[in-house]
Backbone:
């Protein structure tokens, strides 16, 4: 497990503060790669729900002109690591959020719930 995460450390995680600033400036798109059920219970503002299993099939929905920040369940959730690897292999500029939805919510940052 340590080797898995060490290799993926090159994915340069984005901090919560950095993501908030980039969102305010319109510089990034946020991608929630958790299952749809989890997304509907709460997610980062403006996030697009694309579960990891659907990512390759739904690439056309993602912007190529801005960086994509993927997140999932937490700092060690492999879904975001895998999403970033897939996106980079397909030519997208992608990074992962250093923490996941639970840490974001616990920090008191804004969240949305699906209607």
Residues:
């Amino acid at each position: 497990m340590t080797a898995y995460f060490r290799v993926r450390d090159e994915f340069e995680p984005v901090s919560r503060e950095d993501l908030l600033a980039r969102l305010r400036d319109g510089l990034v798109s946020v991608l929630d790669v958790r299952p749809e059920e989890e997304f509907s219970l709460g997610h980062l503002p403006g996030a697009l729900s694309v579960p990891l299993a659907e990512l390759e099939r739904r690439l056309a929905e993602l912007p190529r002109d801005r960086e994509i920040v993927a997140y999932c369940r937490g700092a060690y959730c492999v879904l975001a690591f895998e999403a970033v690897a897939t996106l980079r292999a397909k030519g997208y500029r992608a990074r992962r959020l250093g923490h996941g939805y639970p840490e974001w919510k616990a920090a008191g940052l804004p969240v949305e719930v699906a209607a």
